Amino acid sequence: MTLAVLQRETLGYGRTAVLPEVSFALAPGERVVLLGRSGAGKSTLLNAVHDRLAVSHRVALVPQDHALVPQLSVLRNVLMGRLDDHGAFYNLSNLLRVRAADRSGVAEVLAEVGLTDEIDRPVHALSGGQKQRVALARAWWRGGAVLIGDEPVSAVDETQAAALLDQARARFETALLALHDVGLARRIATRLVGLRRGGILFDAPADTVGDAEIAALYAR
Ligand SMILES: Nc1ncnc2c1ncn2[C@@H]1O[C@H](COP(=O)(O)OP(=O)(O)OP(=O)(O)O)[C@@H](O)[C@H]1O
């Protein structure tokens, strides 16, 4: 069984093909990490898989730019992870006055990502790493079958990144992530996919991909 399949599909923008005739499948229980140089097409593939999956599954997304609302508090940004669970009236009234149960639920995920003291601060006043952790907390709050993350721990230190990826593993059965840190990729991935020059250079179980294969991805 697979959650999402691309079969010889050409992904790109307008008339520009970034990944011509690419094939990729994601199965339940897999933690797939995309590796490759900047511009190799990791976000392009991730977004294509997200678009297909989101039609039929609950997906928690951590986009590269975080997609937060800077003027709103951390609490309200995290609440947005479940906007589509409720009707407009619930969401609007909750925006004005957050229900106690929602606040305490969000406080729990904020504690996990180390943002307890930031719950009422506006997002624009946070550091880059704090903003990234708000985006992760929103995904934790949303939950779902699959986590899709585009460089989701790029702005935090390595120890924090490892802890956050461990949380991701505990919370989501299946994950598709783009990461630039190979050590972190090896920590979480069951499968590694290397993108280079408009195609997939390797797609294999993580423990079968050698360091030389990974180094070849980044060679000039
Ligand atoms: N919205 C867009 N419109 C046109 N071209 C785009 C757009 N987004 C990305 N591209 C191009 O597609 C190619 C792949 O970009 P993509 O963002 O998928 O790479 P990436 O591997 O995720 O890079 P990075 O590690 O820098 O995030 C690049 O050449 C990029 O310039």
UniProtKB/TrEMBL annotation:
Domain of life: Bacteria
PROSITE patterns: ABC_TRANSPORTER_1, ABC_TRANSPORTER_2
Cellular-component GO terms for this entry: plasma membrane
SMART domains (alphabetical): AAA
Domain ABC transporter: 1-219
Gene3D superfamilies reported for this sequence: P-loop containing nucleotide triphosphate hydrolases
Pfam families recorded: ABC_tran (PF00005)
Protein biosynthesis found in the keyword field: no
GO molecular function: ATP binding; ATP hydrolysis activity; transmembrane transporter activity
Enzyme Commission no: 3.6.3.28
Keywords: ATP-binding, Hydrolase, Nucleotide-binding
Keyword Nucleotide-binding part of the UniProt annotation: yes
InterPro entries in UniProt: AAA+_ATPase (IPR003593), ABC_transporter-like_ATP-bd (IPR003439), ABC_transporter-like_CS (IPR017871), ABC_transpr_LolD-like (IPR015854), P-loop_NTPase (IPR027417)
Identification of the protein by name: Phosphonate transport system ATP-binding protein
Organism: Salipiger profundus
